[in-house]
Amino acid sequence: MTRTRSEEIEARASVILGALVADAAAMGLHWLYDPERIASIANKQEPVFLPAEGRHFEGAKGYFAHAGKAAGELSQYGATLALVMRSLIASGGQIDVRDYQRRFLATFGPGGSWKGYIDRPTRGTLANLGAAISDETPLVSGIDDDQMPAFSCIPALIAAGPEADVLETDIATMVHVTNNNPLATEAALISTRLIRAALIGDDLASSLEAEAERAGDVLQPLLRQALAQTSKDSVDIAGEFGRACHVHQGLPVVFHIVKTAPSYESGIRANVLAGGDSCGRSMVLGAMLGARYGFGGERGIPLPWLTRLDGGARLFDQAYELSAF
């Protein structure tokens, strides 16, 4: 696919903004594990871009993690992606692990700017980082955890535009800041190749099949099975593979939605309706669909959704700034 420079920048920016918009769209019902409750809410109002309200979780299976957050705000996944984006901009589009670690500590650590839930990989990373970052701080500061915070760095690194071999090395390095786990790393690399394939115009359906075949012993049968069940909806698929935070549960759901969704908007709605760790899945689902469909039109990221993203103008400018490197 041959693009002008401005088209290439826009395409890369769609990867980041696709993930951020998807995260904010899911935040209000994030970690609600009751698809019937979600369906009931969706029958009365849009299920996307809701404020975090405890009443939606009352008497239902779920964990209410985002009390006080308004519609359009990011979860901890989106906040991590945003700080990776800022770190890359400050470093001229190149990774600087210690800069990322400093920003991570300043955001999620004691007295940091983040006000909200701290998940297990984030908590463990903070413990490993200690009170300050120095030249002696280990670059691998993550814990042995296979949950989806491993996905948060991916969209920003892809938007920065390194070559494929450099990109995969950088992804593994940045994943290990929070998740020092082989399955998390494998899932992140699979997701990276798929987003990049969509970005350069490869047929995404073929890419999904190829990555399922390429996957290791744990993920391969799950991804194959998810791709084969196109007659099922996202709610049934999440019920089969799991709605929780582990990559072997989330990635098959992402594969199924990407294969079956005819547009960005329909895919993000399907993700919210599936329940559970919808924000974790958003990091790669939103990026893949953003890369595939771009902005606007009948299939792309809805332009009104960009205006519903809290701090959207700033994040929009930063996404384009990073994508111009």
Number of helices: 16
**Largest beta-sheet details:** none
How many extended strands? 0
Query: Roughly what percent helix?
Result: 55-70%
Integer tally of domains: 1
- Name of the CATH class: Mainly Alpha
CATH topology: ADP-ribosylglycohydrolase fold
Uncertain residue ranges: none
Helix/strand structural class: mainly alpha
Shape: globular
Give the integer mean of the pLDDT values. Answer: 97
Let me know the CATH homologous superfamily. Answer: ADP-ribosylation/Crystallin J1
Give the distance, in angstroms, between the N- and C-terminal Cα atoms.
19 Å
Beta-strand portion reads: under 5%
Assign the CATH architecture.
Answer: Orthogonal Bundle
- Provide the gyration radius in Å: 18 Å
The helix/strand series, from N terminus to C terminus, equals: HHHHHHHHHHHHHHHH
